[in-house]
Amino acid sequence: MLSDETRLADFPSLTDRTYLNTAAEGIPPRAVIEALAQYGQDKLLGMDGRPLHEAQWQSARERVAALYGLSADEVSLCSCSSEAYNLAALALGVQDGDEVVINDLDFPAGATPWLQPSCPATVKRWHSRDGALHVEDLTPLLGPKTRLVTVSLVSFFNGFKIPLPAVIDTVRQNSSALLALDVTQALGRVPLELNGVDLIVSSTHKWILASHGGGLVGVPKSSADRLTVPAGGWFNLKNAFEADRFERAVSKPGAASFSVGMPNYPAVYAINAGLGYIQNVGVQAIDAHCRPLMAALREGLRELPVEMLTPDYADSIAGIVAFTHPRADEVYQHLHAENIHIMSHAGRLRIAVHGYNTMDDIERLLRELRAAF
After folding, report:
1. Computed over its alpha carbons, how large is the radius of gyration of the chain?
2. CATH number of 33-279
3. Which CATH architecture group holds 4-20+282-372?
4. d(CA 359, CA 362)
5. Which residue intervals of the chain bear CATH 3.90.1150.10?
6. Which backbone phi and psi does 42 adopt, to 5 degrees?
7. Taking a C-beta distance cutoff of 8 angstroms, is the pair 254, 219 a contact?
8. Residue 97 CB: number of other CB atoms within 10 A?
9. Which backbone phi and psi does 175 adopt, to 5 degrees?
10. What distance in Å separates the CA atoms of residue 356 and residue 45, rounded to the nearest whole number?
11. What is the pLDDT of residues 119-160, one digit of tens each?
C-alpha cells in the first residue's frame, strides 16, 4: 500500500520498529500531527478561529458519513465511545421489563451501561462458542421485550467479525429492537456496509489513526426518534439561546443530540486529517494490502504451540489475531526487547495488522515467536 519512501515520510516512527498494536493505539501519519499544530495556530486567533474550527467539524462529519454510509446530518461527534453508549442509554430510557442483549466478546463500553444497578432492564448475554458469536444463539434471546441488541462488528478480544447481514435479519425478524454496532476495530481497516444498523459508534485513536478524545456517532434518520438524547447542554439543543431556554430544553434529533457541549476541536482536527488520510489511500486498498499479511500470520501461528482465540473462518477475517500461551508474559517481554510491539493482557497476546505494516513485519514477528517458544 505504501512505498518505502512514503511509509518513511508518513510514519517516521515506524522506521526501526515492528508495530502490530493498532487495535490498542494507532500510529498517526504526519498529516495528523500537522493538523493538531494547525488547531493551535487557529486557536491563537480567538473568536476569529471559530469559523475555521467549524469548517473542520463539518468536514470531519462528512468524512465519517461517507464511511458509515449516511448523510452528514446523520452523524455527530462526542468525546469517546463510552460517552456515546451512556448517552444512548439515556436516549433509550429502558423501563422495568425491557430487555437488552449484550455479548461476551465486546469491549466494556457497549455492554456496561446496561449492567449498572440503576438500569432497570433485564440483560441477556449472547454467549460466544469457539471464539465466535453464532446467529442461531441470538434468536432465542430476542422477543417483544427486547429494546436493544449491542455488538461490535469486530471483537477487540479476538478479532472475530460478525456476519452483520445475518445479525440484522435475525434482530428484525424476531424483535422490534434497535441494533447498536461498535465499529471501532473495523473503521479505517475493513470496508463497511452498515445499512440496517440503528446506532453506529467508533472511537478515534485506533485504526483511523487520529487522536484520543473523539466518539463518532451515526444515527440514521429512520431511528432518530428513538435515539434522541434528553441531555442538558447547548450544542445539542434546538433552543439553547432562544427566549424560552430557561423554561424547556429541546434536543436536536438523532445523532446531533449526542454532541452535548463544545466540540473537542483538537480531536476534530486530528479526526478530519486521519480520515482524510485513510480515504485518500482507500479502505478497499488497505484491506487488500493486509489480507496476504493476515494469511501469512495465521499460517505461521498454526505452526507454533499456541492456543488460538481467533476462529478460523475465512469470512470473519479483519485485522486482529489473538492467542494464548502459558508463557505469554515472557514471550511478550522477548518481543518488546526486540522492538516488536503487540498487546499482552492476562495471558492473551493480540496482534493487529494495518496498512502501514509489511510482510517483513510479519516475518520478523514469526521469527521471534519461534525463538521465544
Report:
1. 21
2. 3.40.640.10
3. Alpha-Beta Complex (3.90)
4. 5
5. 4-20+282-372
6. -70, -35
7. yes
8. 10
9. -165, 175
10. 35
11. 999 999 999 999 999 999 999 999 999 999 999 999 999 999
